[in-house]
Each structure stands twice: as C-alpha cells, then as structure tokens.
Design a protein that fits this description.
The complex is a heterodimer of chains A (about 180) and B (about 350). Chain A contains 6 helices and 5 strands; from the N terminus they run ααβαββαββαα. Chain A is an alpha+beta fold and about 180 residues long. Chain A has a domain at about 60-165: Alpha-Beta Plaits (2-Layer Sandwich), CATH 3.30.70. Chain A has a 3-stranded antiparallel beta sheet with strand order 2-3-5. Chain A has a two-stranded antiparallel ribbon with strand order 1-4. In chain A, about 20% of the residues are buried. Chain B is an all-alpha fold. Chain B has one domain. Chain B has helices at about 5-40, 60-65, 70-80, 90-105, 130-140, 140-150, 155-185, 190-195, 210-215, 215-230, 240-245, 255-280, 295-320, 330-359; strands spanning about 115, 120, 200, 205. Chain B has a two-stranded antiparallel ribbon with strand order 1-2. Chain B has a two-stranded antiparallel sheet with strand order 3-4. In chain B, strand 1 (about 115) and strand 2 form a beta hairpin. In chain B, helix 3 (about 70-80) crosses helix 12 (about 255-280) and helix 12 (about 255-280) packs across helix 13. Chain B is globular. The relative contact order of chain B is 0.14. The chains are: A alpha+beta (about 180), B mainly alpha (about 350). At the A-B interface, helix 2 of A face helix 1 of B.
Chain lengths: ~180, ~350
C-alpha cells in the first residue's frame, strides 16, 4: 500500500506547531495528575482492585451452613491435581468418625502446597461434595516454604462458609423413613 | 599573599559545590516526579526515614512528594558493588567518570550567582575572559564520554561515545557562534559585566535582557545546550532504546553515579549560562534590584533571583524531555551543520551591521 504523504508547509517545517502542541499536551497531563490527582497508578497495598466474581484464587476448604466440614476425604481432588499440590490422609479404619451425622469419613489431614498450586480449579470442579472452592485470595505470602503448605485447619478457617445442597440431610430423612418401614397404623 | 581572598574563595567554592551537588540530587528527583506526572503516574512516594511519618500533615506530605528519595538513591549508589568487567581498559575506565564530572563543576566557577554579599563578590573567579573559559572547559566534557565508550571495550558504549563526540563537536560550533552577537552587544567577555549591561529596562516596560535584543542567539544557544548536555531530543550517547545505555553501559555503583552527576551538573551549568547571558543573571528590572546589592538582604535576594531563574530552566530541560522523540543521527547533523551554523553566521553579520550603523 502506498501512503501519500503531503509535503510539509513552511510553517510545519519550523517544528513550531508541533512543539507548541507537545507543550500543551504534557502541561495538561501534568496539571491533571498534580492538582486533580487523576493518575492511573493503583497504589497497591492501600488500594486494591475489585476481584471479578468468577475469579480463580486460592483453593480453600469450606464448611456448610451448619458449620460442618463438607469434605468426605474421597481424594478425587488429590488425584486430579495437575501439580500434585494436594495431599490428603483419610481417617483409616480406626480413626474418629466425621463431625457431622451421616458421614463416614472426614480427612484426618488435608494439605495444599500453595507454592505448587497452579490455580487451575480442577479440584473445585471434581469435588462431589462442593467442599473445595477457589476463592478470591490472590496474594499469598509467607516467610518460609513450610509456611506456604496450608493445613486443614488453616484452609477451613480461610474458606469460611459456603452453603449449598446438603445431600446427606435428605439421605438421613430417607433412612429415617426406612426405620419406620412397617407402617404404624 | 592575600589570606582574605584565599579564605573567602575556599568558603565560596565549598558552598557552591555543596549546593550544586544538592541541586543535582533534587534535579534527579524532579525529573522522576515531573516525568511521572506528565505520564499520569505518581512517581517516587514511599521513601520514609524513621519517625518522619509521625510528624502531623507535613511528614506524610513530604513522603508523598518523595523528598527523601535522593538520600535513598545516594545510599544505594554507595552500597552497590563497584564492578569492573574483565575486558575493560582499566586506566581509562577509572579515569572517564572523573573527566566527565570535573569540567561541569569547573564551569560553575566563573558564573556570577549573585551581586555582592557584604564586600564579597558572589562569583568564585571573576575572569575577564569568562565566556572563553566556559567554552574551553565545556569542550573537555566530551573526553569523559568518549573515554568511557572506548574504555569499556564493548560495542554499544563505543557507538555511544562516537556519536556523542560527533554531536558535541558539531553543536559546540553553533553554540559558540550564537554567543558572539551577545558579546558584540555587551562588548565584554566578562560575565559580571554582561550582567551589569542587562540592568534597566528596554522601551520602558521590557527588562533590558539580551534575550530581547538577540532572540535568535538565545534560540540557537538553547537548542545547542540541549545537544551539549545530551538531553532528550539529542540524547544520542545514552539512547537506552538503541544502545542499552550507551557510554555508561559497563559502569556500576559510584562510577555510574559520577556520570549522572556530570550530566546533571552540565544541565545546571547550561541553565546558569543561559540565565547569565540572556536573562539578566541576578537582576530584576524593578525595585532597584538591577544594581549591585548595597545591603545584605538585597545580596541574598539577588542570589535567590538567580537560583529561581535557573530552576525555571531546569524545569524546561526536564519538561522538554517528554515532548520530543529522539532525532535521527543524520537529522541531528543536518540541523547542526546546515541550519544552525549558517543561521548563527547570518546572526553575527546582521548584529554587527546594525551595531556599526548605530555607532
């Protein structure tokens, strides 16, 4: 493509209009940022950006609306995790039972290595109990590698409560009905 | 031996050097702040020495303006490793930063930064050939840069050095010739006498500054001093985008800081020269401020006037950097040799003819 460039007039060749234009533009920006404080810099630790609703932040364990641990230690997330950041140790045959009714298992230990986690969200997607969510935390810091491996208590504390369908309650109701099977008249 | 002269000169030298170093430090800060504002940024606003934060209102405001940033920068330069690459030519590598700094400080010796304080003239060396001395010293500045480029023994610094030597030599010619009409009009080479000539008013309302009598000279001098100080439209020796930093690519720590110091001292010297030659130095045309001071207060006022005028030029230097793109090398040479040299020659001729016809 050929761009036709029209020859500069004498006035334009003096550079003067361009110089004056340059001074005007820079002066405008200078006064705007100096006196009106309109800068595009976000001063980070004091100002923070609005995290979008579907943001994939750090994965945390959550409790249901009754304050019970949702995780049943099925280990699907541990299996699916691409960088193998999740490590789960289930109760085992002799362990203590779950802290909620109608649940057989609960993780004895649940660790996520936040240095390995790639925030892909596979764990959230694969979880059958809706027990792990990628929440909005994006700046995870620590002073050692050990500190960056979050244990179950920390994950639960950070995760908070995310309510939802409580499958086990329905099952409990159904089971209760079966107890009464010979219908009392 | 006149002990009085020696002691007062030593005091003046110490004070002037200290003030110039301080001005360099804060010119760097001003450069960073102004560039930030022009680009809609905030600029350095975090450096806070202990306890400053606790001063109500003033403390946080100072921190936000980055007033303490130069201290942190200086400390950083001192603490950084002074690395000498294996392939450099050691002697020249050590010599170059010093040669870059010394001329820019020497120039300031002849500049009258005030009229009188008591019985002392506010100039370190009141030379009768002040301008010749200035041009002689300024032209030494190129050696620091070309030596740095040569000593580094690597291609980018060498290119920067070569470019800068060509540029500075070319623009020195038009710069020198642009001053000749000023000398013709003021009929003196002594900077104090040039300032004395600029007292009073012109046509009743304009100050009798040489910028109004020789505007073309001022314009050529201004542009040439941008080239001489390697500032933005002509910053070929550095040219970060093309030359990875140019002549000081291989330098680090305090040696690098010395180049910085030299560059900004050059800017200060150029601003001072422009104020002296074209803007009446320490004079103002009203309140009787255009005569040498009789009282101490007037002497201080003269120094402040000079510094204020100089600071305006420093701001201009910094501001212009964010307006222009860099010239191409051939455009630079074209502008220097084919535009400014003939223009300066014509300027001399016209001024000389007008003065001859008047006399």
């Amino acid at each position: 493509m050929i761009v036709n460039r029209k020859p500069l007039t004498f006035w334009e060749k003096l550079y003067l209009p361009a110089i004056v234009g340059g001074f005007k533009v820079t002066a405008r920006h200078l006064f705007r940022s100096l006196f009106k404080g309109k800068t595009i810099t976000m001063e980070y630790p004091e100002q923070k950006w609005a995290v979008p609703p579907d943001y994939r932040g750090a994965p945390y364990l959550v409790r249901d609306q009754d304050g019970n641990t949702k995780c049943v230690s099925c280990q699907l997330c541990e299996f699916v995790c691409p960088p193998r950041a999740i490590k789960i140790i289930p109760l085992g045959p002799t362990g203590r039972l779950a802290d909620r009714p109608n649940a057989e298992k609960i993780p004895k230990k649940f660790k996520i290595n936040m240095l390995r986690c790639i925030f892909c969200g596979f764990c959230q997607e694969v979880c059958p109990e809706e027990a792990i969510f990628l929440l909005k935390d994006y700046s995870l810091t620590g002073q050692s590698r050990k500190e960056m491996i979050y244990n179950k208590e920390k994950l639960l504390a950070l995760g908070g409560t995310v309510g939802g369908v409580q499958k086990w309650k329905q099952k409990l109701a159904e089971a209760g009905k079966q107890e009464d099977f010979p219908v009392k008249v | 031996m006149d002990w009085n002269f020696i002691i007062f000169s030593a005091v003046k030298i110490a004070v002037v050097i200290a003030v110039v170093q301080g001005m360099v430090a804060y010119a760097v800060l001003a450069e960073r702040k102004i560039s930030a504002w022009i680009q809609d940024r905030v600029g350095p606003n975090r450096t806070a020495p202990p306890f400053v934060k606790d001063i109500p209102i003033v403390g946080p405001a100072l921190i936000r303006l980055g007033v303490f940033q130069p201290l942190a920068d200086g400390l950083k330069f001192i603490l950084k490793e002074d690395f000498t690459p294996a392939g450099v030519r050691k002697m020249y590598f050590w010599l170059a930063p010093a040669i870059a700094v010394i001329p820019s400080i020497l120039v300031i010796a002849v500049i009258p930064f005030g009229s009188q304080l008591g019985h002392q003239q506010m100039v370190i060396a009141d030379l009768n050939i002040g301008i010749l001395y200035t041009f002689g010293i300024v032209s030494l500045g190129v050696y620091g840069i070309i030596l740095a480029g040569y000593a580094a023994n690597s291609k980018y610094p060498l290119l920067g050095g070569i470019r800068s030597s060509a540029q500075m030599i070319s623009y020195e010619i038009s710069m020198g010739m642009s001053v000749i009409p000023v000398l013709l009009i003021a009929s003196s080479l002594n900077l104090s006498q040039i300032i004395a000539y600029q007292g009073g008013t012109l046509l009743g309302f304009l100050p009798n500054w040489l910028v109004f009598k020789a505007p073309l000279s001022f314009f050529i001098f201004l542009v040439a001093s941008f080239a001489e100080t390697n500032r933005m439209p002509f910053d070929f020796p550095e040219a970060e985008q093309e030359l990875v930093g140019g002549y000081h690519t291989e330098y680090s720590s305090m040696k690098f800081a010395l180049f910085f110091l030299g560059e900004y001292s050059n800017m200060i010297a150029a601003a001072a020269m422009m104020v002296t030659l074209f803007f009446g130095g320490w004079t103002l045309p009203f309140w009787g401020l255009d005569h040498p001071a009789a009282t101490l207060g007037q002497g201080v006022a003269h120094i402040l006037i000079f510094v204020m005028k100089m600071l305006l030029f420093m701001v201009l230097f910094i501001w212009v950097r964010w307006i222009f793109p860099r010239f191409r090398y051939d455009q630079l040479m074209d502008l220097g040799w084919r535009r400014f040299v003939p223009l300066a020659l014509a300027n001399i001729l016209v001024t000389a003819i007008i003065l001859w016809m008047k006399s």
